[in-house]
Amino acid sequence: MKSPDRITGTLTRCIGHEKRRDRRFSVLAIIATVIPSVASIVTRHVKGSVLSNHGFIKGFVRFSKVFMVGWNNSARPNNPGHSQFFARLRAKMPHRNIFAFLAVCAKVWFERRRGMRPSLASGVQLERAKRERVLVDKIVATTKGAFGGALAVLWTTGAAFADQPRPWEWRFQDAATGIAEQIHWFERYTLWFIIPITLLVLFLLVWVVLRFRASANPEPSKTSHNTAIEVIWTIGPVIILLFLAVPSFQLLTAQYSPEDPTLTVKATGYQWYWGYEYQVDNPVSFDSLLLKDGDRAAAGKEDKSRYPRLLAVDNEVVVPVGETVRLLVTAADVIHSWTIPAFGVKMDAVPGRINEAWFKADREGLYYGQCSELCGKDHGFMPIAVRVVSKEQYQTWIAAAGSDLNGANKALQAAVEGGANDKVAAAGL
Fold first, then answer.
1. Topology in the membrane (predicted)?
2. How big is the CA angle at 55 (ends 49 and 60), to the nearest 5 degrees?
3. What percent of the chain is modeled with pLDDT above 90?
4. pLDDT band for position 5 (50/70/90)?
5. Which residues contact 333 (CB under 8 A, 6 or more apart)?
6. What are φ and ψ of residue 177, in 5° steps?
7. Mind listing the pLDDT tens digit for each residue in 89-115?
């Protein structure tokens, strides 16, 4: 292992290497800036979640904190936590912040040492180092904002993506079932593999383009193989796939292991609306069509914040909260797909075949979806609406719907809208 003096000497030499290598500085500075940015974002957004107890996350955050404390203490010699090692580094480096320090560290590991020149004795090279310092500061400010903001969006879910459709939404809506919660967790879990792999491949691509370009390698390497690398890139993906496969199979098992249903509803897709049949003692069946703007007043659904345009229907599916609902899905003409994103349910409706799905809504509300299989010219006008109500309200509705569907719907609508628990879930398009 290198001694501190040798490390500082190497860092010093890295500051003033040949001019032809200076154009690599911005790329390496950006890569080095990722480390503290990720640490701060992980600390802020993963705290309190399942991932906060992960050993790697704890170690990464702890290392980043210790590193930052050591660097900051080196600027205060009278501080009890003063580190001579960091002080020597700071004294020999013209850079003034931790991100510039990491950028220089990156040069130690990613730049070839052959051909470098001692630099601090040269006034010209000191001026170049000062220009590099200004460049790094600009890169750090830009990268922290863009990269940090992107990661913050990746790890943050909440009310901003709920209630009703909003322009430019692209994340999942709030989960209303246990299966949807598991799907959301698995999506966040896979991002811990996707993001590092993407950044690694991007870095390798940039590094290979710069490191092995023709001007830097007039005589290209004739290496034909490397056993160690081949073993790593074979075993590494296998391990990653195992970490992805285990929770994936657990999720699939949960999706295909429903509890005993208390209610069975058959959904039939037509061009371009849905028909529903309740398999209960007092059979109830109805069609559910897109609510046109001219029919809103008669239906008492003029509030577009509660009944969004192109998503509201004339007759919603009504189910009780906290009860397992078995859904039988089929089609009468072409292939459709019954989808409610908040429930984590998407099932194809195939003519001549009955597919089965299920859901168990954990909270009351009005949830929207759409046909998710291209089925003709009005495919985009085939919404799905499910109203989850209390068990008492459901029993009252089902008792009246067999003889007077419109009256039952209006009575239920008045009762629900008069309460405080009615929420509109966003449509996942």
1. Multi-pass membrane protein
2. 90
3. 46
4. very low
5. 269, 270, 271, 351
6. -135, 165
7. 555 454 445 445 555 544 433 333 444
Chain CA centroid to CA 273, Å: 32
| CA distances (Å), origin 404, targets 24, 233, 399 | 75, 66, 9
On average, the pLDDT of the chain sits at: 75
Angle between the 123-155 and 98-110 helix axes, to the nearest 10 degrees? Answer: 100
CB neighbour list of residue 408: distance below 8 Å, 6 or more residues apart: 397, 400, 401
Cα–Cα distance list, 335 to 34, 256, 332 (Å): 46, 22, 8
Pick the CATH number of 160-212+258-429 from 3.30.70.20, 2.60.40.420, 2.60.40.10, 3.30.300.10: 2.60.40.420
Write out pLDDT tens, residues 24-68.
444 444 444 455 555 565 555 555 554 555 566 666 666 666 666
Residue-level length of the chain: 429
Report d(CA 190, CA 198) in Å as an integer. Answer: 12
Helical axes 55-73 vs 84-92, angle rounded to 10°: 70
20 is written with which tokens?
A: 């032809």
- Report the run of H or E that residue 308 belongs to, with start and end: none
* Listed residue (104, 113, 97) closest to 32, CA to CA: 104
Structure tokens at 321: 């909260």
Distance between CA atoms of 289 and 153, rounded to whole angstroms? Answer: 36
Q: 379 in helix, strand or coil?
A: helix
Amino acid in position 331: A
Residue 285 backbone phi and psi in degrees, to 5: -145, 145
Classify 202 as helix, strand or coil: helix
How far apart (Å, rounded) are the C-alpha atoms in residues 93 and 8? 9
Task: Please give the Cα distance from 57 to 54 (Å, whole number).
Answer: 5
Nearest to 401 by CA among 302, 289, 277: 277
Cβ atoms of 4 and 88 within 8 Å: the answer is yes
d(CA 176, CA 340): 10
Which residue type is seen at 161? Answer: F
Per the CB < 8 A criterion, the answer to whether 57 and 51 are in contact is yes
As a whole number, mean pLDDT of residues 343-352 equals 95
Listed by start position, the domains of the chain span 1-156, 160-212+258-429
- The angle subtended at Cα 352 by Cα 346 and Cα 358, nearest 5°, is 30
